Amino acid sequence: MIGRRLGRGLACCLLSLAVGGTITACSSGGESGSGHGEPSAEAVERNEEAEQKKAEAAEIAKDRELLTAVEGKKREESAEINAKRKEAAAAAKAKKREQAAEKAVKAKEAEAVARIKKAEEGAKSKGKKGQEPVKNTSTTFTTTTTSTTPSTTPTATTPPGQG
User: Fold this and answer.
1) What is the mean pLDDT of the chain?
2) Mean pLDDT over residues 31-56, rounded?
3) What does the H/E/C string look like for 110-142?
4) CA–CA separation, 145 vs 81, rounded Å?
5) Interatomic CA distance for residues 60 and 1, integer angstroms
6) What is the mean pLDDT of residues 27-54?
């Protein structure tokens, strides 16, 4: 880095001398040797400092751009990692919900089967007492009652002694 700056500084000096020399030579025009042909040491030094400041400013700008690019890549990678983490968490959560739903369905089915068995057992015990056993609890049963009393219909009778 120091060697680079030294090389740049030397290049800037040579460039400013060359530019400064042509500018003074042009401005002196047709004047004959009044001593203005070469730039003063102060002017050369100022030109060198200006060129050095410009070079440093350009280097700083370049460094800022590089830093911005690196930070952008870091943010992007971080965002991708966070997105993957959130996606994995959401998938795990969905899987848990699905398993819970399956468990609930199985529990409801088991409960329904238990109710059916209980109803069948209750029907069988009632069937032993004199009723027909119930085979399917989902059907409705109707019972009909029949009367066992004899019907009395009047018959014509003839009085005794006539006949």
Assistant:
1) 77
2) 80
3) HHHHHHHHHHHHHHHHHHHCCCCCCCCCCCCCC
4) 78
5) 13
6) 74
Torsion of CA 77, 81, 83, 86, to 10 degrees: -160
Q: What pTM was computed for the model? A: 0.38
Give CA–CA dist 5/28, Å, rounded.
34
Question: Could you tell me which of 141, 139, 140, 138 has the C-alpha nearest to residue 116?
Answer: 138
Phi first, then psi: give them for residue 130, nearest 5 degrees.
Answer: 135, 0
Give buried/exposed letters for 89-123 (b at 16+ CB in 10 A, else e).
eeeeeeeeeeeeeeeeeeeeeeeeeeeeeeeeeeb
- Greatest mean pLDDT among 21-25, 41-45, 92-96 lies in 92-96
Element (H, E) at 78: helix 41-128
